[in-house]
Amino acid sequence: MPISIRVPVASLAAALVMGACAPAPTYDLVLAGGRVLDPASGLDSLVNVGIWGDSVAALSAAPLRGTEVVDVTGLVIAPGFIDLHAHGQTREDMELQAQDGVTTALEMEAGVFPVAKWYASREGKAPLNFGATVGHRPARFFVFHDGIEVLHGATNPGVVAGLGPMPAGANQAASAAQIEALGGTIRQGLDEGALGVGFGINYSPGATPEEIGQLFRVAADRRVPVFVHTRAFGIGAIRETVAAAHDAGAALHVVHIASSSLGDLPEALALLDSARAGGQDVTTEVYPYTAGSTRLESAMFNPGWQANLRLDYSDLAWPLTGERLTRESFERYRRQGGWVVIHMMKDEHVDRAIQHPGVMIASDGVPFVNGTGHPRGAGTYARILGRYVRERKLLGLNDAVARMTILPARRLEAHVPAMARKGRVQVGADADLTIFDPTTIIDRATFTEPTLTSVGISHVLVNGTFVVRDGRLVSGALPGRPVRAAAPPR
Ligand SMILES: [Zn+2]
After folding, report:
1. Which of 79, 325, 358, 428 is the residue whose CA sits 20 to 30 A from 158?
2. What single DSSP character describes residue 455?
3. Residue 8 lies in a domain
């Protein structure tokens, strides 16, 4: 068992000065009697955890002394869950995610722009660690609309809506000069610490393959991955994206593989596997629901959406009223704008993606509006551990936890140093920890009551501070820190 105890230099020195044996150190917090599950090292044992400040300082089979000792007998101590696809970035959204075991919520698909301003707007206000890519779409709006600052489209949709239907930033092809300018905005975002480059190509149909290829090369030059919602649904667009990333030499993460590939999921998983076998750096993720959600006024619902999504009006639901849409209500709500739920996937595809080796879990949670929205923003992680692991036994507990912790950490740690300290329960790691009861953990959020919190999660620590304690949200706890990329290579 890889167990070590790190004694702080100061207390060792004090012990030597006093000429005495080093006394057992006293940790700020000890989690006693829990089953530590650290997929990165393979540790799965009853181990006491000592925490100093914001870090894990000791793992020991022997008892540890703590200023505070919390008995977690019968519970699993896992690394805090890292969500690579968290659009819901308000405090309320994060508080629901905290109660689902998430400790780091990153906006990688849509991204943000301007980047430094977005980070500054979050600092000191977040229950969870936060971060974002520089977003191709917000950068496009900036370039096409005289420096308009979307910052973050999901929590600031009014900026785009104000441009009216079919805005140029989404729908117009870029000139060579505009592509040049887009490259500049993306480089600027990366200079400001963005975690990669986010693309929602289906939402910016004006972006040609040439534009995407050139901007993938910007990411490749800076050695950061691209996080991509493909140009369309189905295998054709996934193939296009994998080829473009290959040609540009960019590392690629394809978001929400079950919705992106629809019925072509087996081919899509095989394509990603063979790209990886051929040496390409390609990863993907899934959320455990058969419906998606997005903004109805977005370009995804431009004419032709039924063929792209392989759906019709009645497959769309309007969460604010619960109604299924018709041609008439679709037109009306599209002019008004708002979140729509899209019933688009089959259980067998979601199951298959969740079980497929190496596929990460990510929520794609969208902001809740007046308590309405999509349940994935509140229940994704407990749903995996309760329904897919415990009830249906579709995957093992260690495997599931790995897909929520060390896999997303490894996706980023080459260029984001902070991620090398996350996704792990190890000495020196950040004390981002999720402590749950594997026999009771379950999601409660549904499409009719999407903000019902998950249960069976006893404690959640972010940088050593409780955000959930004894199964309850600690109101006012804002220990979340910004996660930024390292300075670019020279
Ligand atoms: Zn998406």
Report:
1. 325
2. B
3. no
CB contact at 8 A, 430 and 421: yes
Q: How far is the CA of 38 from the centre of ligand 1 (A)?
A: 30
pTM of the model: 0.94
For residue 406, the domain's CATH number is: 3.20.20.140
Span from the CA of 5 to the centroid of ligand 1 (angstroms): 43
List the shell of residues around ion ligand 1, using CB closer than 5 Å: 229
CA of 473 to the centre of ligand 1 (A): 29
Domain total of the chain: 1
- Look at the alpha carbons of 150, 123, 472, 419 in this order and tell me if their dihedral is positive or negative: positive
Residue 291 CA to ligand 1 center (angstroms) comes to: 12
Ligand 1 centre and the CA of 202: distance in Å?
A: 8
Range of the domain at 252: 81-424
Ligand 1 center to residue 135 CA distance, Å?
A: 13
53: in domain: no
| Ligand 1 center–CA 229 separation, angstroms | 5
**Any domain includes 263:** yes
The per-residue pLDDT string of the chain (490 residues; one tens digit each, 9 = 90 and over) reads: 344 444 443 443 333 334 456 778 999 999 999 999 999 999 999 999 999 999 999 999 999 999 999 999 999 999 999 999 999 999 999 999 999 999 999 999 999 999 999 999 999 999 999 999 999 999 999 999 999 999 998 888 888 888 888 999 999 999 999 999 999 999 999 999 999 999 999 999 999 999 999 999 999 999 999 999 999 999 999 999 999 999 999 999 999 999 999 999 999 999 999 999 999 999 999 999 999 999 999 999 999 999 999 999 999 999 989 899 999 999 999 999 999 999 999 999 999 999 999 999 999 999 999 999 999 999 999 999 999 999 999 999 999 999 999 999 999 999 999 999 999 999 999 999 999 999 999 999 999 999 999 999 999 999 999 999 999 999 999 999 999 999 865 5
Task: State both tokens at 490.
Answer: 């020279």
Ligand 1 centre to CA of 255 (Å) is 6
Distance from the alpha carbon of residue 419 to the mean position of ligand 1, in angstroms = 23
Cα(280)–Cα(249) distance, integer angstroms: 8
Cα(104) to ligand 1 centroid in Å equals: 19
Checking 118-123 for CB contacts under 8 A at 24+ apart, the result is 118/151, 118/152, 119/192, 119/193, 119/482, 119/484, 121/151, 122/89, 122/480, 122/482, 123/482
